[in-house]
Amino acid sequence: MKSKTYIRLHAEEQFAKEITALVKEDKSPKPANWKLSPEAVLVYILGGKTKNGITITPKYFGQQRLVELAIATLLTDRALLLIGVPGTAKTWLSEHLTAAITGNSTLVVQGTSGTGDDAIRYGWNYARLLQEGPSKDALVPSPVMRAMEAGCIVRVEELTRIPSDIQDSLITILSEKSLPIPELNLEVRARKGFNLVATANDRDKGIHDLSSALQRRFNTVRLPLPASLDQEVEIVSYRVAELNKGIELPQDAVSVQDIRKLVTVFRELRSGATEDGKTKIKSPSGTLSTAEAISAIHSTQSMAYYFASSQKGLLPLAESIVGTILKDKQDRIPLEEYVETQMKTRKGWKKLYEACQQVMNED
Amino acid sequence: MKTDQLRIFGIRHHGAGSARNVVTALQQYSPDIILVECPADAEQLIPFINDRFLIPPVAILIYNRNQHQQHVYYPFTLFSPEWQAMLYANNEEIPARFFDLPQGQSFKLSEYRVKKLDGVIRDPFAFLADAAGMSDSERWWDQYIEQYQHGADVFETVLDLMSEMRQNVSHEYHINEIREAYMRQQIRRAQKEGFKRIAVVCGAWHAPVLHPQVNGSLKEDKRILLGLKKVPTKCTWVPWSYHRIARHSGYGSGVISPYWYEALFSHRDKATVHWMSRAASIMKDMTIDVSPSHVIEATRLASSLSALRRLHRPGIEELFEALTAVFCFGDEDLISELRIKIIEGESVGSVSNDIPAVPLLQDLEERIKKARLTKDWRQHDAVEKHLDLRKHTQLRASHLLHQMILLDIPWGTELEPENDPHGTFHEYWELNWKPDFEMDIIEASMWGNTVKEAASAMVYDAITKVGKLSSLGNMLLQALRGDLPELLAPITQKLSNVANVSQDLQDLMPVVAPLIWSLRYGSTHKMDVKGLSDLLNQLIPRICLLLPGQAAIVGEELAEDLFNHLMAIDQALKLLQDGNHIDHWQKALSKVAYGKLSHPLLKGASMRVLLNSGEQQISSVSIWLNLELSSLEDPFFPAQILEGFLYGGASVLLHHRELRLVIDHWITSVTDEHFNSFLPILRRTFSRFSKSEKEVLFQLIKKGQQPDTSEVLRIYNAERESILLPVLDRLLDS
Hints:
- The complex is a heterodimer.
- Chain A is of the alpha/beta class.
- Chain A has helices spanning 11-14, 16-25, 38-46, 64-75, 90-102, 117-120, 126-132, 143-150, 164-167, 170-176, 212-215, 229-247, 256-271, 290-306, 315-325, 332-343, 350-362, and strands at 48-49, 55-56, 79-83, 108-110, 122-124, 139-141, 153-157, 178-181, 186-189, 195-200, 218-222.
- Chain A has 2 domains: 2-222, Rossmann fold (3-Layer(aba) Sandwich); 229-362.
- Helices cover 47% and strands 12% of the residues of chain A.
- Chain A has a 5-stranded parallel β-sheet. A two-stranded antiparallel ribbon of chain A has the order 1-2. In chain A, strands 5-6 form a two-stranded antiparallel ribbon.
- In chain A, a hairpin with a 5-residue loop joins strand 1 (48-49) and strand 2 (55-56).
- By secondary structure, chain B is an alpha/beta fold.
- Among the domains of chain B are: 6-122 and 151-240, no CATH class; 258-344, no CATH class; 359-445, no CATH class; 617-734, no CATH class.
- Chain B has 34 helices and 10 strands.
- In chain B, helix 21 (488-501) packs parallel to helix 23 (530-553).
- The A-B interface holds A 38-39, 42, 65, 68-69, 71-73, 75-76, 78, 81, 83, 212, 215-216, 218-222, 280 and B 289, 291, 293-294, 297, 300-301, 304-305, 307-310, 317, 321-322, 325-326, 328-332, 555.
């Protein structure tokens, strides 16, 4: 298959079989331009089994009610805003929702501080514009415009990184469901099935809060960090395995126990208390999100695999832990305290403790 | 055997759908008597239902006449099926009866025969809910029974369902058998009296076994009920609130959202919109930006959510989730503050004056009148009150307010006067009446028939339960100032028992100040305070021993607590004037001040106290300060030292040039980065200085020299002047 040569597949390509299976037996009523009924979308996201016995893998491990809320929002004509800290599977959920509903998750606006008007409304092909004057052919439609014309869902990633005045150009689109093109005296009107899924992070630095006018156009679903250690370990292992498939790393370079330890460290430092809730811990400055845990494990694996001769034992894991936590000079004290009071005394953590100490002394 | 002479309507207590269905069913059946599941000894209360001042939510209160603590409430709302059944009976002028086992017998039974069987299922509906994949039984009942508009037919279904359940689920409290036998007997009695169309309204669970010709024999029921003893009871209607009916508040048969049920009962199809609009208006009052379009969107979201979940219509969970997503931008923290208002509703019921009030309320009203506080009672706006304890009526008011605090009815909050708290004949109170007090009074009435008696009984009870020294200490002070001297000995006894085993400064320190105030109060009022002073003689040296060690290991949060306790103890000790204690105390403080590891906040505070009391010379203090401020490891350390040291005001800085120089030197030597990091602490420290202090300090720093007299004179306080001048006037006049 041709797609095998790509590092990463789109959700609808990767899970094409599951979507086809669900489409085949989906008898429930479908909203206009939806490939699957809302119930089938729910099954696709949360996992399950079709009647023919095809297993649907779970895509989202969090609370079912949040997914239901997200799908229900897309059933109304309000747009959906997924909010949360990094690593709460915002993008992941939005991609899979879109893939299941429209079968196409590729209409994306990637929000950055440089995102301009043309990414949300339309741009011009200047060569043609100069030659032919303003015409429909000289227009370069944005993903949003294309979604409106096709009646499908467009994704906006990192909405809050887009400058406020550009964000606000979404207001008309979301409330009037039309996009005027004054230069041509035309308008593009959204077909049934059009909607928008945005993701945003409201804790980071360098973000632009939504204007209340825009905020009113969204239903907001806040995605929480994983509730339990087991859940987070499961998410990290799953996502790391997915990443490794892309770059063909062996699956078992880091054991489950080690993933568990790293996630424990992150969770405890993040929440400021031990998992048993008995001891208070100083928190470092970083968010230490699940996403960071995933990339820490991923880099541990790469290091252990490619530099096997110099990086022995738990050193790569310790490097990742220390490297991820030490974002700032002042993070050193909480980390040292954690290593000395928590790691040192725990059963089965001796090797990791020694490795962490070694790494920190080298710094 | 089903004849039309008897119909049994199984309901869910406080089920809005049940209430509607009961009304429909009763209209269709038109019974000649209605039997309601409620203790028979409260039957006399039924006629009050028509009283236009009896507005639900209200509750029937039944209590043991000889022992008020033994009591029980049966709450009713507008949407309680039982309430609707009684209303129907009164409107149609047919008799209504309470036909459950009298409470007097239940009280007796609960004393002797509490026999819980193993594997008892408290909530049989949880099984059904679980089978239907729902999180809890209320949700199940809501979706499958309440929200269907079956009308009268639903009761047949409920009956079948329950008989199936009773056969297959192990259940039963022993007391249920007795109650059911009693209820069957009452139905038999009604039949015997010749009623031809008997309607029975009871909890769904009992419905299948109440038919006297189908279940249980007359003989067997008589045997079960034979020889039951009872205690004498009294009963009355009392006001109740949605908050207390909400399950959240711990009431077993409670519902999650009373207001939602009210909306369901009163508006049926439009309930969702009503609920949302009300939530919106509550949020508007809290100045959260919401508009009618929000209401529309949230209602639509709730509907599509319930469709996705294959529910008949939205339940409270869907409503709340939609509300969070649309109104609150997904922020559950924001909404959790409004949770009580939005979810539970704030309705409070009322009862008329004709209904026998509890004796405590009568006594309370009497005493309020005597204390001349009548016009402030039941006033919604807070008022400030100054009481001069040398005047008889105002002393009465003070006693009453203190006693009410002990009763957990905090009508008055005492405001700390600026100087010398508790030291004068004056008390300053803020009176803030809350509707909930009505119910608090009813609850408190279980402890006695007068305020004084109840307060005293509650304290006696608390003594056996409370193990926290500080609450005991405060209780003692309240008791003494509330004219309950008989409590002095028992509380002191309990205090010394607890204090002897506690090693925790967090526990020990806060009790000292209230004890010293109590001691002073007791001795000026000629009470026997020997026990109390013995206790202090033990406590203070122990605290002094523990303090230096503890100061070295506390974390940030605890340090602030200890700091506050330290200040309070110091102030109280000054008042006590006991040389021995002060000696101990100063030694401990000096250990803290010079301890290498002591927390900087405590260090600073200790040194300041020592300087103020003359125990330390200014020269040694400035050497100490110089040393402490030179700490380089942690930029917060010096800032916190200063925070502790300067807590008591700027006077030391005004009078001692050395100290100013030390601080000046330090400030100019820190790096910008460090300065920025501890700036908030410094700001906090200096913002505590008064305006005039700050001005003079500024002048001094500008000049870089000692203040001359003209500048000292400028630290004057207009307020003090206005107090002083009239007095001078009078002195000069006379």
